[in-house]
């Protein structure tokens, strides 16, 4: 599987535990249309680029959907050896949080890939522009909808220390599964002050892509928004750092304690 920048920085934290997905209406208290998140990416000490995520509400036919967009781009000196410009989009049902359609547009050095996927819920299948029809598990999500589903469903529950969460998405014409676990809640220093965060690390087993828990660390704000504030990803001898640098229109005040 092609591991692009956006995938490495975000995909392993997009939670979509299959048994927890429900097509029933679910109240959303974590985000709303207009939300914008921007992240600064560094390779060691070098500024390497940025990633952005934004949410809009758009009408498709007679229904309204969340239209989520995410981009990742390298910049500066890093573009000399890694010219990356990736775009992801997802149309997500307002009530259930399940995707209707996903778009993936990858531009990395000499590698190009564009694909669209339609999710056919009543038949448990997806239709890929690249590879045709595929059977999928009930309640499957794409890479973006899984992230937003986690924010509105999973993080507002009482997660126990070392609890493992299965990650399952339809990505790159594959059903991709990873396991990560909740480590602890701690106060983290950010550009916006010290904020209580939930820390997650990968589960280490024979199928894991990581050798140590420290190879991937993600801190989500424990404030009702549940946005990633910091990501640390070890790649060889270097560490990729991804930090929230700007935001707009959060549904809840950033850093305000979340009462479960």
Structure keywords:
260 residues; mainly beta; YmcC-like fold; 14-stranded antiparallel sheet; 2 helices; 7% helix; disordered N terminus
Structure report:
The chain is mostly beta strands. It has a single domain, classed as YmcC-like fold (Beta Barrel). The protein has 2 helices and 14 strands. It has helices at 5-10, 143-154, and strands at 36-43, 46-60, 63-74, 85-93, 99-108, 111-120, 125-128, 132-135, 164-171, 174-190, 193-202, 216-221, 228-235, 238-248. Strands 8-7-6-5-4-3-2-1-14-13-12-11-10-9 form a 14-stranded antiparallel sheet.
What is this structure's SSE topology?
Blueprint: H1 5-10, E1 36-43, E2 46-60, E3 63-74, E4 85-93, E5 99-108, E6 111-120, E7 125-128, E8 132-135, H2 143-154, E9 164-171, E10 174-190, E11 193-202, E12 216-221, E13 228-235, E14 238-248
Class computed from helices, strands and strand pairing: mainly beta
**The top level CATH class name:** Mainly Beta
Radius of gyration: 17 Å
CATH topology: YmcC-like fold
């Amino acid at each position: 599987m092609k591991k692009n920048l956006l995938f490495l920085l975000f995909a392993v934290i997009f939670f979509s535990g299959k048994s927890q997905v429900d097509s029933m209406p679910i109240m959303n208290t974590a985000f709303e249309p207009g939300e914008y998140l921007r992240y600064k990416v560094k390779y060691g000490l070098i500024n390497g680029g940025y990633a952005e995520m934004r949410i809009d509400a758009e009408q498709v036919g007679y229904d309204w959907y969340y239209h989520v967009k995410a981009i990742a781009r390298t910049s500066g000196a890093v573009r000399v050896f890694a010219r990356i410009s990736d775009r992801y989009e997802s149309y997500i049902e307002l009530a259930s949080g399940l995707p209707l359609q996903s778009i993936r547009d990858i531009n990395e050095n000499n590698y190009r890939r564009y694909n669209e996927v339609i999710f056919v819920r009543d038949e448990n299948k997806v239709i890929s522009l690249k590879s045709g029809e595929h059977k999928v598990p009930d309640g499957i999500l794409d890479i973006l909808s899984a992230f937003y589903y986690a924010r509105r469903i999973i993080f507002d529950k009482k997660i126990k220390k070392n609890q493992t969460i299965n990650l399952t998405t339809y990505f790159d014409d594959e059903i991709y599964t990873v396991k990560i676990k909740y480590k602890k809640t701690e106060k983290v220093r950010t550009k916006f002050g010290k904020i209580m965060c939930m820390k997650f690390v990968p589960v280490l087993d024979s199928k894991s892509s990581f050798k140590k828990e420290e190879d991937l660390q993600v801190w989500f704000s424990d404030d009702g928004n549940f946005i990633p504030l910091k990501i640390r990803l070890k790649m060889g001898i270097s560490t990729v750092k991804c930090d929230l640098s700007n935001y707009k229109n959060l549904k809840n005040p950033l850093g305000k304690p979340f009462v479960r």
